Amino acid sequence: MPTTALRATGPEWTDPDCPVARTVDLVGDRWSLLVIRDAMDGARSFTEFQRRTGIARNILTDRLRKLTAYGVLAQEVATSGRRKEYVLTEAGRDLFPVVLTLRQWGERHAFAPGEAHSLLVDEHGDQVLPCTPTSAEGVPLTADNTRVQKTR
């Protein structure tokens, strides 16, 4: 969905000028992120999302409707032709680095040392390496060497 459409039809923005705040307004609640995570992992049907997350039907219905309205998911007719399924849009697929970063933060900070957890692996079965944002010159970026530049 184009940005202008979100500007006109989006929620009341927490902080209208902040991309982080707008993103959180759209996809930042627990259930939305878990639905997006499961869509990235191949979930397509309402039943599958519900089974994987344990989410209540009414909340799942609300999140799927919201994610579809904001262009993160789209509905398509399943190959069986009997029902519709949910698929990630380009905007939804663009959230992969966000989910990956949340996952990697969780691996470092949400588990005790040695505590078992799921792993994200590539198509060859190798664990995905930690992501580090870098500058145009290849310097690792942190909160200490970046700043927000206001456009107004």
List the helices and strands and how they pair.
Layout (H helix, E strand, L loop, with lengths): L2 H7 L9 H9 L2 H11 L5 H8 L3 H13 L3 E5 L6 E5 L1 H4 L2 H14 L43
Antiparallel strand pairs: 1-2
Short characterization:
With 152 residues, the protein is mainly alpha-helical.
Distance from N terminus to C terminus (CA atoms, Å) equals 25 Å
Mass-distribution shape: globular
- Report the CATH architecture: Orthogonal Bundle
State the fourth-level CATH superfamily. Answer: Winged helix-like DNA-binding domain superfamily/Winged helix DNA-binding domain
Derived from helix and strand composition plus strand pairing, the structural class reads: mainly alpha
How much of the sequence lies in strands comes to 5-15%
Mean pLDDT across all amino acids? 91
Task: Identify the CATH class.
Answer: Mainly Alpha
Order of helices and strands: HHHHHEEHH
The amount of helix comes to 40-55%
**CATH domain topology:** Arc Repressor Mutant, subunit A
Total beta strand runs: 2
Count up the helices. 7
Low-confidence stretches: none
Largest sheet: 2 strands, antiparallel
Organism: Streptacidiphilus fuscans
GO molecular function: DNA binding
InterPro entries: HTH_HxlR, WH-like_DNA-bd_sf, WH_DNA-bd_sf
Biased composition (Polar residues): 143-152
